[in-house]
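User: Hi! I'm a student and our assignment asks us to look at how structure tokens line up with a sequence. Could you show me two examples?

Assistant: Happy to help. In each example below, the sequence comes first and the structure tokens follow. Example one:
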Amino acid sequence: MTSSSSCFFSEASARINHGGGRQVSAPAAGQNSFPPVKLQIMDQYVVVGNGIVEVNLTNPGGSMTGIQYNGIDNLLEVVKSETDRGYWDVVWKGDGIIKKKGALDRLEGKNLTVITEEEEQVELSFTRKWSSELQGKPVPLDIDKRFVMRRGSSGFYTYAIYEHSQQHPAFQLANTRLVLKPRKDKFHYMAISDKKQRPMPLPEDRVPPRGQPLAYPEAVLLVDPIEPQFKGEVDDKYEYSMENRDIKVHGWMGKDPSSSVGFWQITPTSEFRSAGPLKQFLSSHDGPTCLAVFHSTHYTGADLMVPFEAGEAWKKVYGPVFVYFNSLESEVSSSSGTGMSLWDDAKNQLMIQAKQWPYQFLGSRDYPIPNQRGGITGRLSVHDPEISTRNLPPTGAWIGLAAPGDPGSWQLESKGYQFWTEVEEDGSFSISNVIAGQYNLYGWVPGFIGDYKYGAVINITPARSIEVGDLVFEPPRNASTLWEIGVPDRTAGEFFIPDANPNYINKLYLHQEKYRQYGLWERYAELYPEADLVYNVRTDDYRKDWFFAQVTRKKGDNGTYEGTTWQVKFSLDRAYQNVNYTLRIALATANGAELQVRVNDPSSAVPLFTTGSIGKDNTIARHGIHGVYRLFSVVVPGSLLVDGSNTVFLTQAINTGPFYGLMYDYIRLEGPLSTNPPRN
């Protein structure tokens, strides 16, 4: 059965149940001019279509085998098996799972229920219940995958409800996502943002001898690609990772603007994704592949594995994601010859979907509709007496609701929902459509170190907005700044990022986001082959003289590495001996690193401070500029300092391999409080 069938009927077999859901909301004006939505059910397949799009799914598995649109019989990759074209999956660990990275479960359904079958809308539910006899095989969750098609819509919606009941065993959730694989002969041009768009190589180009594997499997040098334009480039899916707050629309277009079709994923909200607005996820990448990742440990490591205890009750709705297709009769070609109007139309569709969210037409009662949600408003300012005696507007600040915890804990929170917004210029903020529950209010402000957290737990109730009034963030500070390196923005992006080795480039990043290039960790040893970085706070410029990552140095060709020690040199007119200074070290990311701090004595067997082994972010290898934010405040006794020249030694001691290291966000030394009065 392919998705090209045009004969629609509704036929319930013995294993299909018609379930009750919410009443379908009224169609938008003009929608009745489109054909009604129709459903066709057979023993092995289900087909749902609305005259614009037709989707074929396995019965009762719920895998997408075909999508028919604009005269193309299938937009999905036809050379792959039927269950490897479009699907939901999880990676998990638990009893009986021996694979290091966990077991992959494609979440194949066992029962089909028709939730809604009306002219305006069809909603299908593919479910699977876990039982004890399945121990160690599928993930111990009850799964409900939903697919919704509406009249007049050039696409469909999909979402899923995961439930861990009191009868389920313990396990850990590592990753869950929606995977769509467009046809490689139809889709060649990828777009993930206004500035990040490009033609992509074919998947065959990654396979030897056309492709040469590099330091890890995801990175491949294209040495003999089918299309010569890609020769000499590196292809790596992590080069196209995006921050949660930016993942709203991405996808694929055809090669020829005159016949191009667009294939897009649109998510008007990120409430269901893990770890807050700065968490990085994969998006679209070579394949072609179009992902909606809801939870992963990328750029955070094992700290973001979701642990479930035996008998722990939990339920979460992931999605919905709107899978959208477009094909414009009148293309507007850019100078690069790509169908840019398809991208513009997809962005416009994002705005349409955002206005409709939270959707009122979904059939699951686990998805709260607008009158079941609440909100919060207030105003945030910053008070830092080093800068001003008056409160300051929090320029560029983000504030949000997440599960109760310590300041900054939202970075590793994944079981609940998170709701974030960027504050207005005057500090005011409003977060609406928040799912009822208990939250803490968190935030951070670029230009200031640390995390904000409102003191009380916020109880969001349906149809009510809470006003918290004027809030003041007081970033950590003991005394005035003696010197500083960098900008406190939670990234290492302001530091020196070298040009890529010309033998390992991605052309997309020659003039933007240079840190996305492959192999930059090797450039450090080329710049500092023998001695490590020495930085003078008076004369050096962190934009040119502070390497963006403190990494290991490769020793010859024997596969061994050594830790590195960076020096920060500064002068004090007078060092007060009987008081304490404070060294603030904000890290943008760490991977298997240990940062040791020594002052004026690099040979001291015991450092003044050590982080111990921290981080599994793997940001260095995955072309990132930040991972999990960490702030350390080191007490420096005045007795360690001298009048005149001083040196802080920063040692990254772990030397196991090339990807062990860290990135700094910001460093500053604060003087003793008694000698540094606040300035207006």
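Example two works the same way, sequence first and then tokens:
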Amino acid sequence: MSTNPFLLAADNSPALLPLLRENPTLASEQDSHGYSLVHAAASYNHLDLLRALIREFNVDVNLRDEDEETALFVVETVEAARLLVEELGADIAIKGSEGYTARQKIAEEGDFPEVAEYLQTKEAGSAQSLLNGNGINGDTTAVPPLPEGLNVSVGTMTPADDNDLEVDPEFRRRIEELAERDDFHAAAGQAELRQLVQDAVADQSTTDRNVRARQD
């Protein structure tokens, strides 16, 4: 039987985990092209192996190959994509050397449209979470990076503050529409996102000044 961990991972061989427990450093190894066991497990839809690599052996879920692509770029099922994103914390905003996110590359290749559709819903959810001051599922660390030069501070609010908070429906709609576009992570989409947020901040500042003027 082969002891090549990459072949064992492709076959989901029961011999692989014992081998990794004897030699834990093998879990994070990459071949000459940067291909890793995480990429293999994701590509072949070996979900239990994928969990073990990330949780038991602490392999970076965003480990990149020679094309700067993570395991999310090679998934072929929604189940594998969901496991990587929702359970193991894979970053959906990472771009490969060609400038595409995993969703954009999968959509471009057209082989697994249901995976691309799932990732698109996660991108839209990320934009919505950004509006609400939260990350994906409430995780502020999971918000995709904002355009260069744009910062958003996330603070805590008292219940009274939360009741007074209203998000402009038109601003929310425009953000959601932008997040669904294919060029959301491209330069044009990021420029439009920057402009939307800057306009919103400017509008809020004007409103605050008007309120203070009336109070004075």
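Here is something you could point out in your write-up. DSSP finds ten helices and no strands in the chain.
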